[in-house]
Design brief:
By secondary structure, this protein is an alpha/beta fold. 30% of the residues lie in helices and 27% in strands. The protein has six helices and ten strands; from the N terminus they run βββαβααβαββαβββα. Strands 1-2-4-3-5-6-7-8 form an eight-stranded mixed beta sheet, sandwiched between helices. It has a two-stranded antiparallel ribbon with strand order 9-10. It is globular, with a radius of gyration of 16 Å. The two termini are 13 Å apart.
């Protein structure tokens, strides 16, 4: 496994953001992985998931959004997050032109990625991995944040906990069942941070992602 730190230029006005690539010895695909609203790319959840994926021959490119890079608490507006995701995807494509690409993220990062890909068709992205999709604010069940998913033209994997306070389970089932390209994986007892009392579900999340990407008939690991 090889870890490389780098900078990604988003635009002249936005500037650069930090990023990190974790490369397994043999790589079957690359996942561009965006962080949530409350923590950056180096949050233990993000680094641990990337490490677990590397053990399963899946490379990751994690990156900061500008608000994290600038140590601000308020997330960037969608136009800025979408531009950042685009830059990260293009950087991964440039570095690994022959490797199948996937994109997604944890919570806010996944939602921003699906928003971007609902408006901008990206031929290089084979599918979207949504780890704890934040369907609504805590205590305010609603499916409005899922409206854009109807416009996504590529497969989506939803990894959701049954105790997620940002995604009431019956609403998650309702939303994903209406999307022909969506697959929903249920993590029994997991909250929004995928914490389960007495259990580490991170390796399981990585296995579910591996099994899903393998259905795309990927080439042999390189």
């Amino acid at each position: 496994m090889k870890i490389t730190s780098l900078k990604i230029s988003v635009s002249v006005s936005i500037g650069e953001v930090s990023a990190e690539i974790i490369l397994p010895e043999k790589m079957k695909c690359m996942l561009v992985l965006a962080h949530g609203a409350g923590a950056g790319m180096n949050h233990p959840f993000m680094t641990a998931l990337s490490t677990e994926l590397a053990a399963l021959d899946i490379g990751t490119l994690r990156f900061n959004f500008p608000f994290t890079e600038q140590k601000k608490k308020k997330p960037d507006v969608p136009a800025v997050t979408h531009k950042t995701i685009e830059a990260a995807i293009q950087h991964a494509k440039k570095l690994f032109p022959k490797i199948p690409l996937f994109a997604g993220g944890k919570s806010f990062g996944g939602r921003m990625t699906s928003q971007y890909l609902s408006k901008q068709e990206s031929e290089e992205i084979k599918g979207i991995v949504l780890v704890g999709f934040p369907l609504h604010p805590p205590g305010k069940p609603s499916a409005e944040r899922a409206e854009h998913l109807k416009d996504v033209k590529i497969p989506m994997l939803f990894l959701q906990g049954t105790r997620d306070e940002l995604a009431k389970w019956d609403l998650v089932e309702q939303v994903t069942s209406s999307l022909p390209l969506a697959k929903l994986i249920k993590l029994e007892g997991a909250d929004h941070g995928f914490k389960v009392p007495g259990e580490n579900v991170l390796p399981l999340l990585a296995v579910y992602i591996k099994e899903w990407v393998e259905a795309f008939n990927l080439p042999e690991s390189q």
